[in-house]
Write a structure and sequence with these properties.
Transcription Regulator spoIIAA, Pdz3 Domain, 6-stranded mixed beta sheet, 4-stranded antiparallel beta sheet, 13 helices
């Protein structure tokens, strides 16, 4: 089952509304009413639990429908729709403003370029966590550990603070904050973007960076915009293998990469799978990857429940799986299929998890265009891990919790990977 990459859309949904939101015409008010009815009916008919966890959905309709009928602006209408969905207390239910939805549903070519900067939140501040080799950012000397303070003359701090305030208590805060900064950096390939930084010495500087095509090979999933897929593998020690990939995409390429890693590292003391920053993708690929590390039949990573069916994430062992120590690296930007895989392998006692708690956004979801032009994201299933744990709103808790530190980034040190390697080296064969 394909796990839609709703995280990217949720980040866009948190963007500030356009200034000067105009009053609505009678026709627009009717379209908002039609959209409310569509959202309410869809949840009633497609939510995986027919009882909606005991929520009085009819009462919610009676309370909120008059409010959207009275909404004077699109922003007010979206607030009512979002309030309706908020009663479900699930992360994969969202209203995406029409402009953002159009960009992501076929108009995304204008946002495909980036300067080659990856972003993570460190102490509430947006930090460069990695710079792609050969990218415009690398060419201008941008380094991990630099703080991003502004993009195109607009400060980052207010937007980051607004997300923290609006998402208080959510496990997705750092993911949404990082994605909001990344979205500002993105744009048309070849178009420059002005970025303000604070260097390691805290000296401020502004650089104009070109936007280039992202790393990897173009790939698509369903009706989502084209995204680039990449996978890399190497030895971090002579007897320790390492593999990292940005999405659970391109089944043939991904499975081939794991086959080559496992067969070429048969005598290795251990392997590391790096899922940091991986937002998910095709859910079924989690079981395909797991098969390279589990020899016992009859195992499963967990189960997904729709309104009509239950899907077990059954693992089918490969004839010669890797049986040595396995470390999995995660962070706040690991989501969806990454969480399913990491928690499932942890529950089965097959892997040790390093890093920080994941996004807690494991549910598969789909998207529809509403009558008023906005997008509507809704989850179509629940998910529990092998041990019966719900990952939604909780995330994967690492066995060894190790967060990013600015000093480590500036020094080029990867403390999470170091901890995983140390654990493998200490294990007896």
């Amino acid at each position: 089952m394909a796990a839609r990459l709703g995280i990217l859309l949720l980040a866009m949904a948190c963007a500030a509304p356009a200034a000067g939101d105009r009053s609505l015409t009678p026709a627009q008010r009717q379209l908002n009413l039609d959209s409310f009815d569509r959202v309410w009916t869809t949840v009633r008919e497609k939510y995986w639990d027919p009882q909606l966890g005991g929520l009085d959905w009819q009462a919610a309709r009676q309370e909120l429908r008059p409010k959207i009928e009275a909404a004077a602006t699109m922003e007010q209408a979206r607030e009512v729709l979002s309030a309706l969905l908020a009663r479900l207390r699930q992360s994969h239910f969202a209203i995406i403003p029409a402009q953002s939805y159009e960009e992501l549903d076929g108009g995304g070519a204008e946002r495909q370029g980036n300067p080659g900067i990856d972003v993570r939140m460190v102490g509430g501040r947006a930090m460069v966590s990695a710079v792609a080799p050969g990218s415009p950012a690398a060419a201008r000397g941008v380094r991990p550990g630099w703080e991003i303070t502004g993009v195109e003359g607009k400060e980052i701090a207010p937007a980051v603070a607004a997300i923290r305030e609006s998402m208080a208590g959510s496990t997705m805060i750092e993911l949404l904050q990082a994605r909001s900064v990344t979205a500002r950096l993105s744009g048309r390939i070849g178009a420059p973007v002005s970025v303000s930084f604070r260097e390691g010495s805290d000296r401020s500087l502004a650089l104009e960076l070109d936007r280039s095509r992202p790393r990897g090979t173009p790939a698509r999933l369903g009706n989502l915009p084209e995204m680039n897929f990449w996978v890399e593998s190497r030895r971090v020690r002579p007897e320790i293998g390492y593999i990292r990939f940005n999405l659970f995409f391109e089944p043939e390429t991904l499975i081939r990469a794991f086959r080559e890693m496992v067969t070429g590292c048969g005598e290795c003391r251990g392997l590391v799978i790096d899922l940091r920053g991986n937002p998910g993708g095709i859910g079924g690929l989690a079981t395909g990857v797991a098969g390279w590390f589990i020899g016992q039949p009859g195992q499963q990573l967990g189960a997904m429940q729709t309104r009509d069916t239950r899907v077990n994430f059954a693992v089918f062992p490969r004839p010669e799986p890797f049986r040595g120590p396995l470390a999995i690296l995660v962070d706040a930007c690991s989501a969806s299929t990454s969480e399913i895989f990491a928690e499932g392998m942890k529950d089965l006692g097959r892997a040790r998890i390093f890093g920080t708690r994941t996004a807690g956004a494991a549910l598969p979801s789909v998207f529809e265009k509403l009558p008023n032009g906005d997008g509507f994201q809704y989850a179509i299933a629940s998910y529990v891990s092998f041990s019966g744990k719900s990952l939604e709103g909780a995330g994967v808790i690492p066995d060894e919790e190790i967060g990013l530190a600015r000093r480590d980034l500036l020094e080029g040190r990867d403390a999470v990977l170091e901890a995983a390697v140390s654990w493998i080296e200490q294990r007896k064969n």
